[in-house]
Amino acid sequence: MKDPRAWGAAIDRDDVRRLAALARIRLGDDEVQSLSDDLTSILRVLLPLDSLDVSELAGRPPVDAEQIATTLRPDEVAPTHVHRPLTELAPSWREGFYTVPRIPALDPEARSGNGSSEE
Amino acid sequence: MNDGMQVEPTIGLEIHVQLNTSSKLFCRDANVYGAPPNTHVCPVCLGFPGALPVVNERAIELGIRAALALGSDVLERSGFARKNYFYPDLPKGYQITQFEEPLARGGELGVHTSGSSTTIRIRGLHLEEDSGKLLHDRLDAATAIDFNRAGVPLLEIVTEPDLRSAAEARSFLKTLKQLLEYLDVSACNMEQGHLRVDANISVRQVGVDRLGSRTEIKNLNSFGNVERALSFEIARQEAILAAGDVVNAETLLWDESARGTRGIRSKEQAADYRYFPEPDLPPLIVSGTTIDTMRENLPELPWVRHARFQRDYDLPATAASLLTRTRDTADYYEEVVERGAAPRTAANWMTGDLLAAVNACKSSFATFAVRPVEAAALLRMLDAGDIRRPLARTILSRMIETGRSAAELTEDTGLLDSLDEDATKELIDEILQTNPDAVRRYRAGEVRLEGHFVGQVMRRSGGRADPELVRTRLRRKLSE
Amino acid sequence: MQPIASLARSLHSGAIAPDDILREAALALAVADSGPDPIHPFIQSNLTERSFIRATGALAGIPIAVKDNIATVDFPTTCGSRILEGYTSPFDATAVKRLRAAGAVIVGKTNLDEFGMGSSTEYSVFGVTRNPHDRSRVPGGSSGGSAAAVAAGIVPAALGSETGGSVRQPAAFCGVVGLRPTYGRVSRSGLIAFASSLDQVGVLARTVADAALVQSVVAGHDQRDSTSSRRQLPEFDGDGDLDGTVIGVPGEYFPDHLDPGVRSLCRAALRRMEACGATIREVSLPHTRLAITAYHVIAGAEASSNLARFDGVRYGASAIDPPTPGDLYELTRARFGPEVKRRILLGTHLLSHGHGSAHYQRAQKARALVSLDFDYVFASGVDAIFTPTTPAPAFRIGEHIGDPASMYGSDEFTVPASLAGVPALSLPIGFRDGLPVGGQLICGRWEEARLMRIAAGLETALL
User: Fold this and answer.
1) Chain B: nearest CA to A33, how far in angstroms?
2) Coil, strand, or helix at residue C431?
3) Which helix (H) or strand (E) holds B291?
4) Chain B environment of C93 (Cβ under 8 Å)
5) Higher pLDDT, A111 or C340
6) Is the N or the C terminus of chain B less surrounded, counting Cβ atoms within 10 Å?
7) Residue of B nearest to C308 (CA)
């Protein structure tokens, strides 16, 4: 059995299908084959980084001290100026809501606390 | 497995707390509940192409405040990461969350459950953005999405698996909620989903070190649900173990209407979130001095205040608990005392008549029409013996009705003047006439009814009658 | 089209009117798009007269083209993709806002490789852009449309965007100046993200001075971008000077496979610099060989996440009547072109839990090492590094399409500076068999003024 962690391991058609499912892209059978070939050859062209010697980095300060901290914004509510209502750009819009085809109420992907939730 | 096996549940909680900020975590839309759908949205929280997040400093402050109160180690450097998954309520296709570099690590919270006390360790606290809200039944054949909530700041508090029962989990959550309210970190409004809980549960044999297979229950949005879901799940796992079977590691949803859990994903199907550091946000740096300053400026914590109330105001533990349950109540109490009411009187009233009045108005001490200065004036009159308790009650209800002060009401309406003999007589006649049954029983020998009659007269008089006079007149009348 | 400074003088003196410039631009575009092999620099353009053109500002009346992955409210912003078909941004990118405020006239949106992913401007749903110097060849990419528009004399300057070399490489192929600023110098707000930690808005222009002028307008802190720097852009007075400068020449950028014509033009340029008082010093950037891998791992990973937002729910093209939400996503996202699908899947693979993001973390370490190479060289007293911009001049249309991996090689000299976040500029140093060749100058972080001064010196020395 191949080691999926190995850098140069081939990306076979099943791998492509799994990746496309994760990335939510529907592929035709011909695309699956060509992507399997392309990704395999791309990964072979790229150098493996597994044996990188990073001892030089040890204990070094960040390259640019100014850029290492994120900027913070005061907690103020303010309207964002836009040239057209954002909701007009919605592909599917009904009664004040964005819509998608009906999701089953107890969907396997449903999450409560960490982000998504149902009502 | 033999029948005599002793099992012990092990529970860990992940609590998602909506932070009490004005604006969202990464953009300037209002963080409000109940607005018309999709009215508090902008290119950033809708994930428009080219829109970028900028961190709300208040959210960071509130997170640090909670961490300090829990005794957590606030990290001077933390960072945001992307959690990648697709769902219609997630605008960008990823959630910005803190992952490998959380805001704080460690900490603990003391919990008291029916007499016993334990300390629950905190694993860490991190910030993340909320998603939009899906409504499945609003539209025909479609799921509706409201993105007003998308990008609202959440603080996730993760405990170690230290909880041992559903009741303990509930107490922990109540204590945590009280703390977060005290700190003004969150309004903790359960109906508005300010506190949402995921629970991890495993049941193990006592004496066995290794934890059993763990399940995770999601979708717990009330403390009642947490307790019910945990009780259900503990019993379910115990039954599986007792039957000699193995618990599946899986993710479950609590179905409130069915009062049961339902599996949605096994461990093998574990989601692949492809976390990596959020490149749009450089690390968050909080200096040690800033953390120290925030620690010094931390508001008094509920359990510290509770101890101080017992000590400084000489209150019994139960009264101190009631008075420190929320910060508003405790603040109200202290102001009433500061303005001259006796601590004991104030405590009695705030756990009795005043509390009843607040509840009757569906108000809270924060917004109650009678402000502490007015309540203190009333209680001072009571303490000085100017009025008696029934009269004080009458004045209080007039204060609520009219918005006038105790002093004004007593001056204007002569509430302080005692009832003269004639008026007292009239009242007694009236009470006896309307209670012929009781009069008959009294005359038949049930003399303890005298107290009942006195009480009624005193109440009707608004406390202005002289109880001694009432008593003599009553006896005389009843012996006629 | 004349340089901006002389256009501005003519406008100021009244010798020409803004509409005259637009007419000249329209004429140049008509010529460019004529014949069997149109150059096709624009996805959308508007070169008609404007009712109102600001009379004041550093770029008053100057036509500027904008790459179509930079948001504009008055043209659609498509990223060359079917997934953004019909999308017009509700807001302007900060760089565009600043151009407008300086009086510039935005005349159109230029063609690009879809979402900036490519080095030839062949991967656009709107068709290929051709090299104005040889229409059988690519203009480079991904900012090929911007480079071609400047090279064809339609506009004096254009905005492009850089991730791994998407401004410098097409500038070299089309014989114009291309500037990549320090990471954080120009706001990314409104730049549609490909790889956030590498993306920067850059400038393509006819001259170093014009590039510097446009850069001075678009640069500066923006509160909408948390990675935008608060540093002031150093003043550049437009004069070149090489006297007393130390120019580092890294051996790693002159490999055996370097085109001999490119090699000799680089040598000639170095001799000219020496003649102008510069000291040429051999330097080493030993981790250069890691750069392409680190770049593709980081860019792929970030791209796979950045492009997740195109799901057909809130804007853009969407699948028609999908029966389930899954169909909505998968059919909408099937609209991505082949190169975008390759990069998304590559990035998804590299971040996937089979790897525990180990590849991404290692790539970040490799990136730090590449970055450190530059720090050492600049700390040793080198003012600027000089290299060829590309290993060879523009290749033929279709040459690399069948072999995507081979295309990645044309970025090998531009990617290291991108990883390090340092400013770099490509300028024309001559022709090989009628094809323009670019030389690259790289300076330390925030040293754009030094970069411009040295580049302008070389530009003059090569006249």
Assistant:
1) 24
2) strand
3) helix B288-296
4) 50
5) C340
6) C
7) B93
Cβ atoms of C64 and C104 within 8 Å: the answer is: yes
| Interhelix angle B327-338/B372-383, nearest 10 degrees | 50
Residue with tokens 């393509």: C204
- Set of chain A residues whose Cβ sits within 8 Å of the Cβ of B28: 73, 76-80
| Residue closest to C454 by CA, chosen among C216, C182, C236, C169 | C236
- Tell which residue, C236, C237, C241, has the closest CA to residue C276: C241
Catalytic positions of C are 67, 142, 166
The residue of chain A with its CA nearest to that of C317 is A91
Structural tokens at position C414: 């531009």
C175 contact partners, CB below 8 Å, separation of at least 6: C133, C151, C428, C431, C436, C438
C181 DSSP assignment: P
Give CA–CA dist C376/C380, Å, rounded. Answer: 6
Please tell me the distance from the alpha carbon of residue B44 to that of residue A75, in angstroms, as a whole number: 15
Where is average pLDDT lowest: A4-13, B228-237, C144-153, C305-314? A4-13
Q: Would you call B3 exposed, middle or buried from its count of C-beta atoms within 10 A (0-12, 13-18, 19+)?
A: exposed
Strand (E) or helix (H) holding C435: strand C435-442
Rounded CA gap, B404 and C211, in Å?
A: 74
Residue C313: which of B50, B88, B279 has the nearest Cβ? B88
- Placement of tokens 């109490």 in the chain: B333
Q: Do A24 and C366 count as a contact with CB atoms less than 8 A apart? A: no
> What confidence score (pLDDT) does residue A115 get?
38
Which of B25-29, B53-57, C172-176, C286-290 shows the lowest mean pLDDT across its residues?
Answer: C286-290
What is the per-residue pLDDT for B144?
Answer: 96
Q: Which residues of C touch B272 (CB under 8 A)?
A: 352-353
The pairing of beta strand A72-73 with beta strand B55-56:
parallel
Nearest to C395 by CA among C121, C152, C196, C206: C121
Using CB atoms, which residue from A76, A112, A118 is nearest to B198? Answer: A112
DSSP state of A55: G
Length of chain A: 119
Q: Strand, coil or helix: what is B242?
A: helix
Structure tokens at C173: 């192929």
Instruction: Write out chain C residues lying below 8 Å of B281, CB-based.
Output: 226-227
pLDDT above 70: percentage of residues in chain C: 98
Find where tokens 């939730």 sit.
A117
d(CA C335, nearest CA chain A) in Å: 9
Residue B8 — pLDDT band, cuts 50, 70, 90? Answer: confident
C-alpha distance from A56 to closest chain B C-alpha (Å): 22
Mean pLDDT, residues C411-438: 97
Q: Per-residue pLDDT averaged across B194-209, rounded?
A: 86
Cβ B88 vs Cβ C325: under 8 Å: yes
Query: Hey, what are B67's tokens?
Result: 């961490």
Q: What is the mean pLDDT of chain B?
A: 90
Beta-carbon separation of C89 and B48 below 8 A: yes
The residue type of B125 is: L
Which tokens belong to B244?
């000699």
Radius of gyration of chain C (CA): 21
The Cα B226–Cα B220 span in angstroms is 6
Interface contact flag, A26 C372, Cβ < 8 Å: no
For residue B19, the model assigns a pLDDT of: 98
In this complex, which chains have at least 3 CB pairs below 8 Å with chain C?
A: A, B
**How far is the first Cα of chain B from the last one, in angstroms, to the nearest whole number?**
82
Distances (CA, A) of C253 to B41, C162, C260, C285, C415: 49, 20, 13, 9, 12
Q: Are A103 and B89 in contact (CB under 8 A)?
A: no
- Residue C221's pLDDT is what? 96
* Residue A64 to chain C, least CA–CA distance (Å): 9
**Cα of C360 vs its chain's centroid, Å:** 24
Peptide bond into C142 cis (omega under 30): yes
